[in-house]
């Protein structure tokens, strides 16, 4: 039997944002993927919450079963998250990874109505961050040449900082094909990140309880951004994922699920 079609919530600019429910429970949770991931990257970790949380997996705009409306900006992604939060009457926990976590924090600075947050390694821009424009240009050039795989490899190794052997392992996963489709949206997200002000001062008024996940082996810039965000947020807890890097939702979903089950109410 095929899975039922996803539900769609309409963002203020008319873009439909896809949601798929994968567990049952009295409290709602919405998960948000990062980078080239589709919504189901959170599915295995979410299984640990069955019976406690009704987990809904979201596709970000321009990916999966969600729509896309020009012009793109992070502000539109913040609006998407606010639309989802209102659909759940402000009662949902939001969990997000990587650039999805960055967008979640951005939405939280605009009084996101949510129960609490889970953020896994947001690439928050800090003073001294290098200009990634040449890397983004190289990704766009690969995409223009029809080389989606080359664009993903550049993004993972040069933007994220993942070792080549980790990328090789990701290529063997079923989700690799989805990454090759979603990579077309990655350079625009990178250019939006370059527009953000450096530093974490804008996060000081985010009062939501925030659980932060951090891979023990994650690249230094992601460990630094996680630490800086945690030090700024008024109510944050950092939990390290032993032996893991930036891709634990794929490499150790049971570990992520266990952490969520242990640290969420």
Strand content: 15-25%
The CATH C-level name is Alpha Beta
Question: How many domains make up the 3D coordinates?
Answer: 1
Helix-strand pattern: EEEHEHEHEHHHHHEHEHH
CATH topology, which one? Rossmann fold
Helix segment count? 11
Radius of gyration: 17 Å
Estimate the mean pLDDT confidence.
Answer: 96
Q: How far apart are the first and last residues' alpha carbons, in Å?
A: 34 Å
Describe the protein.
The chain has an eight-stranded mixed β-sheet with strand order 1-2-4-3-5-6-7-8, sandwiched between helices. The longest helix has 14 residues, at 74-87. It has a single domain (7-127, 197-263), classed as Alpha/Beta hydrolase fold, catalytic domain (Rossmann fold). The chain is globular, with a radius of gyration of 17 Å. With 265 residues, the protein is an alpha/beta fold. Helix 4 packs antiparallel against helix 5. 40% of the residues lie in helices and 17% in strands. It has helices spanning 43-46, 74-87, 99-108, 133-144, 148-160, 164-171, 176-182, 186-195, 220-232, 248-251, 253-263, and strands at 7-10, 16-21, 27-32, 53-58, 93-97, 116-120, 210-215, 236-241. The chain has eleven helices and eight strands.
